[in-house]
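New to this. Please check this record:
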Amino acid sequence: MKKENKIPKYLYWTPRVLAILMLLFMALFSLDVFDEKLGFWGTVLGLLIHNLPVIVLAIVLWASWKKREFIAAIAFIFIGLFFLSRYIMTAVTNGFEWYYLSYSLIIVAPLFVIGALFLMNWLKGRKGKKR
C-alpha cells in the first residue's frame, strides 16, 4: 500500500483521544447529583439521567472505533447541534445571558471539532480506497 493512501496516525488518534477527554469532561457535570441528598436510588437515577449523552457518545465511539468514522462524525455533530439548540431555546425563553455563549463554546465547539475530525478521517480513508 502506498504511503499516500494511508491515514496519518495523528488523524486517526486525535478525534478518538479528544472524544474520550470530552466524554470525561461531560461526565464531570453529573457529579452535582451528590449535593442533592436524594438517597441511593435517587442518586443512581440522577447519575444515569445526567450521563445519558455521555453513555450514547461512548457507545457511538466504541461502535465507530475502526473504519466506521462516519457514524461518529454524524453523532458528535448531531449532539453538538442538540446542545446548541437547547442553549438557544433557553436564551429565547429566559432572555440572553453572556454565559450561554460560554457554555456553547465549552461544550458545543469541541463536539463539532471532534465530529469534523472523524469526518476528515472517514473521507481520507475513503479516498485511499478508491485509488
About this structure: Residues 9 and 67 are 14 Å apart (CA to CA). The radius of gyration is 18 Å. The first helix runs from residue 9 to 28. The chain has a mean pLDDT of 85.
